[in-house]
Design goal:
By secondary structure, this protein is an alpha/beta fold. The protein has seven helices and 28 strands. The protein folds into four domains: 159 residues, 3-Layer(aba) Sandwich (Molybdenum Cofactor Biosythetic Enzyme, Chain A); 60 residues, Alpha-Beta Complex (Molybdopterin biosynthesis moea protein, domain 2); 91 residues, Beta Complex (Molybdopterin biosynthesis moeA protein, domain 3), CATH 2.170.190; 69 residues, Beta-clip (Beta Barrel). Strand 20 and strand 21 form a beta hairpin. It is elongated and about 100 Å long. The protein binds adenosine monophosphate and magnesium ion. Adenosine monophosphate binds next to loops.
Length: 402
């Protein structure tokens, strides 16, 4: 049996490197930067005021208090967006607003709350407090310097990255292409919801479930009709899915049953094939194939096994195909509210719910066909073989939902 780490490495190795496209910033959330981007401007771009108030020379206000205020002559107003023409000399100030450039000669801003007008003396500002040099001034380049890296190749584009890119003068970004992922479900017992079921039939649920996680991974899921358990039908479905997609994900038909046709179908398509029993529960049988240089991920049919193997083995590859530097699921530390036990000899990825306080609950029935607990869960706990964790123990939860 293959270790999970080895399986992930092989899966990543099968993922082709991405093509790229340039997209407008506003639509780039969740995509991955294809290249480093440096800024050719600084942030702030010039020294500017952090407050509404008056630009002053701090030395002029030495020792100013409400009891012994200092009066300054106001030379004029600097609205945001304007470039001040005057230079402040001793005993003068200028009215200034948040974001307005600091005039020559000034080295501080006094808040308007610390100033008053002088009755009968238009153009005089009474300062009731002192200011330290550079107080209330945002200095050029203190946030980001010209030439700094603002986004690294492989980084996920977030709202913050988009803000930074726009603030440094970008309107678009080059990102990895979203891979088209064909989803093929095999099984003669499967029926498209919501049509009626005959005895022995079940609703097909893996394509919809996988489409949801493929989309969450930024892939473009494309659903194909249910494939009955026949070699010819499987070959035809895979041939079409490979022709139309960058990767294909199948579910079912990868065990050693008489009706498991995914492996022989890949052989018929002259693809290469790697069949693993990965040492994890749920989800032991897994097929990694390649047809015409495109990867095939053959997931087990049980819905929970399909989702867990997707998260552990397919998601990393789909992320790599988009140029992502990080492909691991996020971990959130928590504390167990229920005992968790693994009596088996494989790592068990237990469905859990972690709440806002960090309490981690067993999500319910843990067998691989049980969808009720999957719907409750937002994460997985990686429980080593033959292990038991007690209530109150710290755990890391691998998050797959918010
Ligand atoms: P298989 O891997 O084909 O042997 O299927 C294992 C179990 O998962 C069986 O109980 C199947 O009926 C079920 N199953 C397989 N594919 C799906 C699917 N797409 N939707 C729901 N259940 C499925
Ligand atoms: Mg089957």
């Amino acid at each position: 049996m293959l270790s999970l780490e080895e399986a992930v490495e092989r899966s990543l190795a099968a993922a082709p490197l991405p093509g790229t496209e340039t997209v407008p910033l506003a639509g780039a959330t969740g995509r991955f930067a294809a290249a480093d981007a440096n800024t050719n401007v600084s942030l702030p771009g010039f020294d500017n005021s952090a407050m509404d108030g008056y630009a002053v020379r701090s030395a002029d206000l030495n020792g100013a208090t409400p009891e012994s205020p200092v009066d300054l002559k106001c030379l004029g107003v600097i609205p945001a967006g304007a470039q001040p023409a005057d230079t402040l000399g001793e005993g003068t100030c200028m009215r200034i607003f948040t974001g307005s450039p600091i005039p020559q000669g000034a080295n501080a801003v006094i808040m308007q709350e610390d100033c008053s007008t002088v009755p009968g003396e238009d153009g005089t500002v009474r300062c009731n407090d002192s200011v330290k040099p550079w107080e209330n001034i945002r200095l050029k380049g203190e946030d980001v310097r010209e030439g700094d890296l603002v986004v690294a190749a492989g980084a996920r584009i977030t709202a913050g990255t988009i803000g930074l890119l726009a603030a440094t003068g970008h309107d678009s970004i080059e990102v990895g292409l979203r891979p088209k992922v064909g989803l093929v479900a095999t099984g003669s017992e499967l029926v498209e919801p919501p049509s009626g079921l005959k005895p022995g039939e079940i609703y097909e649920s893996n394509r919809a479930l996988l489409a949801s996680v493929v989309a969450r991974t930024n892939g473009l899921p494309i659903l194909y009709p249910i494939v009955p358990d026949s070699l010819d039908a499987t070959v035809a479905a895979l041939e079409r899915a490979f022709a139309e997609n960058d990767a294909v994900v199948t579910s079912g038909g990868v065990s050693v049953g008489d009706h498991d046709h995914v492996k022989p179908a890949i052989e018929r398509l002259r693809g290469s094939l790697d069949f693993w029993k990965v040492a994890v529960k749920p989800g032991k049988p897994f097929v990694l194939g390649q047809v015409g240089g495109k990867p095939l991920f053959g997931l087990p049919g049980n819905p929970v096994s399909a989702l867990v193997t997707f998260l552990l083995l397919v998601r990393p590859a789909l992320l790599k195909m988009q140029g992502a530097a990080e492909w691991r699921l996020a971990k959130r530390p928590g504390r167990l509210a229920d005992e968790l036990a693994n009596r088996g000899d494989r790592r068990h990825f237990v469905r859990v719910t972690i709440d806002a306080k960090g309490l981690v609950w067993n999500a319910g029935g843990q067998r691989s066909h049980m969808l009720g607990s999957l719907a409750e869960a937002n994460g997985l706990v990686d429980l080593p073989p033959e292990s038991r964790l007690a209530k109150g123990d710290p755990v890391d939860v691998l998050l797959f939902e918010e």
